[in-house]
TrEMBL record:
Record field: transmembrane: none
Top EC class for this record: lyase
Binding locations of Zn(2+): 120, 122, 130
Binding annotation for 5-aminolevulinate 2: 274, 313
Stated name of the protein: Delta-aminolevulinic acid dehydratase
Amino acid sequence: MYYPVARPRRLRSSANMRKLVREHYLRVDDLIYPFFVIEGKDKKVPVQSMPGVYNLTIDLLLKEVAQINALDIPGVLLFGIPDHKDSLGSGAYDENGIVQKAVRAIKDNYPELLVITDVCLCEYTDHGHCGIIREGKVLNDPTLELLAQTAVSHARSGADLIAPSDMMDGRVQAIREALDGEGFEEIPIMSYSVKYASAFYGPFREAACSAPQFGDRKAYQMDPPNKREALREAEQDIAEGADIIIVKPAMAYMDIISAVRENFEHPVAAYNVSGEYSMIKAAASMGWIDEQRLTMETLTGLKRAGADMIITYHAPDAARWLEDQI
């Protein structure tokens, strides 16, 4: 049927009519908020390229977590920034490392909040790469053991989900076997299965102090033009034991989110990364855009693309805006 019999505007005529026919909704339950944790006490260091985001010591982290918990955001993702870095990233798997201490503190105070830990070496290595370096190359297989040690140490500290982001081949299997061998078979793996070598990560590198000291990460993170490769990566991680698949970044990769959603039954997480966040914040600070409307439109678009959950620095603001809509 066509006009004048069909009139699509009939279903757009009022706010309540639009609610009745709305196909996708963003909920607070969909959100995960990332935190950057540093050593020390009473330190709140602003990330200059990410307005509203801070590197926090554990005492101040707990105050921020209290607000996240009060907003009913179900989970947080922790990145650790140690005082000391070395070639093997030993702070990543230190039982008294910064993430391990932060996990214990959060779980002691907010046991029901889901704590997800990023498993990688780049924040902990003095060279800034995600694995062991030899003769200028990142070695895949020797790195797996260190990643597995890191995952087990996070699990011992009380982490609810383990999220490997390194993009080494076989790391999900290595982590799954290590967790199972230590009695942590019930802890799920939330794998950064589809992680592109993206320019959108720039502000994160400042926050995590993790920029490579030489070269780049293109030899292990994915080439942005590739789509079929994303499906192969997701399929392999699922076969190795991944429980949730992350696609990162999000905004320029909605087609990838959609393809992963259509091809696999596993839950899909979209990581709305630092550069995506900072672009909105920068434009809003200039008065060029309506920050609330654009943020909510973006996050809802990620849901429409197929994301079951969204890791985003917008989470506290989005949760408050959603509460105001009730």
